[in-house]
Each structure stands twice: as structure tokens, then as C-alpha cells.
Amino acid sequence: MARDRRHVWHPYASVVDPTPLWPVVDAHGTRLVLADGRELVDGMSSWWAAIHGYRHPVLDRALHEQVDRFSHVMFGGLTHEPAVALAELLVDITPPELTRVFFADSGSVAVEVAVKLALQHWQGRGQPERQHLLTVRGGYHGDTAGAMSVCDPVNGMHGLFRDYVAKQVFVGRPRPAFDEPFLDSDMDEVREVLRMSGDRLAAVIVEPVLQGTGGMRAYAPGYLRALVELCRSYGLLVIFDEIATGFGRTGTLFAMEHAGVVPDILCVGKALTGGYLTLGATLCTDAVAAAVCADGAAFMHGPTFMANPLACAVARASTSLLLAGPWQETVAHLGELLRAGLEPARELPGVADVRVLGGVGVIELADQPDARRLQAALVDRGVWVRPFGRLVYTMPPYISSDEDLAAVTDAMVEAVGEVAVHRPPHDQRRTSGVSAHPRPPEVRR
Ligand SMILES: *Cc1c(COP(=O)(O)O)cnc(C)c1O
Questions:
Q1: Residue 241 catalytic?
Q2: Residue range 66-93, pLDDT digits in tens
């Protein structure tokens, strides 16, 4: 721990006033084993990724086999079976319109690639003035410059990087909520914005149906359908970011299936490799590819570790494993247990909302809690759930047992009950090593 503190930077963290850390020495199934011997039940799937849990024999074997062949070769001028097989598989499981696959090193890079494809597409089509993107508030698309420009401008990082981040066009958060009726008037703002600037916009980019890190909110599929239709009527390309929602998490293989709409460009990542290695992919239609490559042009992107064979091999193994199992029933069951398990939180003081979509369960608090106390209260109860902002949320591995899920939801409800309400200081139970003084909120995730 001392060596970590001396040199290592953690996500969204200060090195001057660092938040507590728990060293992991082993992980298997749904368990994270800490250095002090404690085992935590994982409720995070390591940020939406480890859907099959840790050290899954099928995924381990795929990696071992590929290591024994070769671990990496450059992708310029060379190709290999793991990349080709994974591209075929991705084309197979996504809508038939999506035929081309560009491999990226992470989700954020997949988003950069999507944006560059959209811009190059309009250059190829002789409309280079289409330079800007339309998006909704409350979105999250990654931490690189292009991705940041389409994250929520308030709870994202626009304030910090004002002149660095490209100016994009924002409309309000998608409305209404997932199971509420969509009204035509919910499109009024989009309609107005498109009327004003539709001919300058290259594409619309959204997370279909579920906004993840920007607030864990599911919105009506009808909104997505109407947005896509309206944007297309002004010629915009449609980019779906399914980096968080892909691979079954919302109950359908991809969240866009709730709305029955197909994008021109699709980004995937996170659960793509079952959480083993970093990999993203951007898929597009023949029409987009043809425009990008018009007049002898090439697409101008090419990461050093593009289509890393280890990442591709484990992604193929993870995706095949998912498809071979009853993932719909698994995620539906997960959702039922999350709904039942989190429901008691609704009655707790300080709780604003409890919601579940697919395998994502959320307790939203009315006020910013003491994040350190909340985190410690969860770990003390033997689960790994990482709150952010006013949200205490879980997206457990699909392999979670009923007992695992009960452990996670019970701990969430109890920890929220203990910490969310600001009690007088004499009533605050200090947890060893955890400061009880209020922290600035962690902004992301
Ligand atoms: C996590 C996430 C990203 C960024 O992916 P990284 O692999 O962290 O770069 C982009 N979009 C969405 C919707 C995400 O959830």
C-alpha cells in the first residue's frame, strides 16, 4: 500500500488526498480476495466488464492458447485469425446493416473512431461543413478529448478543459423514463435544434435506452426511435455507444433492440472481452465505409496495439460463451432479484429513487453522501460496490448466485441506511482507517 501511495495514480483520484484502497491478491468467480484474507462479493463486474466473473476456465484457456501462438503482431499489413473471427462474430450478432469492424484499444478510442468515421464520411460526401455532433445531456462516452466533448457538459469535464474540448450541440436529457409513455412533445427541443443547425451536424451520438455513468437512467425506447427518425430526416448519421449496455446487460443483447432501431455506427467495449483485456470495436455500415473511402481516401486511425490477438481471442471466447448460455433468463432473473433486494431502500430516509433495468440496480440518494463512509460500510459488509456521486449501483457478474445477489443488495440497503442520512456527529460510527469528514464528490463512475 505504501508503494502504491508513493507512485501510482488511481482513476479520478487525487494523489495528495487519496481515497482508501483495498489491495486485491486473487480473484475467482464472483469473489475478490483482499490482502488481509477477506473475500468480497463483486457487485461491479469491474466496471460492467467481467460478466462471466474472474478466472473463468473458458476465457483462461482461450488466452493461454493464444499466448502459446503469439501475443501481438502489428495490424498494418498483417492479419490474424483472432481478429477475423471476432469481426465475423460481431457482424453476426449485431444488425445486418453493420458490416465493417474497426478494432480500438478501449471504449474511449472506439468513440473517437466513431466520431472520426462520421467526419470523414461527410468529407467523402462533399459536405465537410458537417463538423459537429448532436447529443443529449447526461451522457457519458469516455475520457479522451473527442469523447469528453459529448459527455454531459455539467457533470462531465467541460469546465476543466473549456478551450480543449470541441463545442458540440446538446439537447436535454432523454425523456421520459423507460416505462413511461413517450409523447411527441418530448421531441420539441430536438426538432428546434435540428431546424436551426441540422445541416451543420455530422451525427447524433447517444447511449441507447440506458445512460450509464452519466446518471444510470433508463429512458423510453420511443424517445430513441423518434430521435433517430428525426435526425435521419436531417441527414445526420446515428452513432450508438453500447460500450456499457452491450452483451446483454439491459436484458437484450444490445440496448438498441428495446427500440428496434439500427445505427450507422456502433461502439462496443467493456464486456466485449469479459473484462480480461482492454478492447473496443467500432462497427459501421457499407454506406459509411464507402463514403469514408471515397476518391481513394483511407480512414485515418491505426493504434499500435490494434486488434491485439490476446484481446481478440478472449473477446471471441467470452462472447461465444455468453451466446451459448441462457443469458436472457440469467439477466432477467438477476433483474428480479435486484428489484426485490433493493426495494426496501425506497423506504429509507435520504433515498430519492430505486430503479432496475436488466442487470443494473440503482439506489439514488437525495443528497451527496459521505463517499468514504459509504464505501467502507459496503466493504465491511463483504461486498464490492463502488458508489459515485449520489448513486449506489450494482451490475453484478452474470454468474452471480442468488446468495451473491442477496449479499450485494442487502449490503447496499444496509449501508445506505447507515450512511445516507446525515446523523449528528456523536452518532457517526467511525470505521478504522476511514476519515469521516466530508469529501468532495468523486465526479465520475
Ligand atoms: C466506459 C464507457 C466508455 C469509455 O470506455 P473506456 O474503455 O473506459 O475508455 C465510453 N462509453 C460508455 C457508454 C462507457 O460506459
A1: yes
A2: 999 999 999 999 999 999 999 999 999 9
